Amino acid sequence: MTLAEQASVELMEEFSLTADPAGWKFVTTYENILPQDNFHWVISMGTIPVRSLGEIVNKEPDKHSEFKLIDPFEPGVENSIMGMCMGLPMREALAQSLPRIRANILSLFPQ
């Protein structure tokens, strides 16, 4: 299974979102370390088109007690991201990757 296919499966399992693996575009990777648990992992981030965000349902609230949709084109969105309740490495990776995320989204709508 490819990373794009796995992302599509996870979006369906966790949020009831229908995603198109063919539209997957890589954004970045970052590492996360929990020294107290002796745990280290590397995470790949990407963009993937979904049929509709109107379908979204948090099917695994025990894994993610909340989720927030953000507009990557909204002025000041970097500050919103840095104030979110998630680990610092993820917040930093997301905020620093906004130019690529925006470009990936815009590429879905060729002019």
Please, could you describe this protein's structure?
The chain is an alpha+beta fold and 111 residues long. It has one domain. The protein has four helices and two strands; from the N terminus they run αββααα. It has helices at residues 3-15, 77-82, 88-96, 98-106, and strands spanning 25-34, 39-47.
Structural class: alpha+beta
The tally of helices reads: 4
Q: Main β-sheet, in a few words? A: 2 strands, antiparallel
Estimate nothing, just give the exact number of structural domains. Answer: 1
In what range is the share of β-strand residues? Answer: 15-25%
| Count of strand segments | 2
Helical amount? 25-40%
Query: Which strand order do you get reading across the main beta sheet?
Result: 1-2
Q: What is the secondary structure topology, with strand pairs?
A:
Layout: H1 3-15, E1 25-34, E2 39-47, H2 77-82, H3 88-96, H4 98-106
Antiparallel strand pairs: 1-2
List keywords for this structure.
alpha+beta, 17% strand, single chain, two-stranded antiparallel sheet, 2 strands
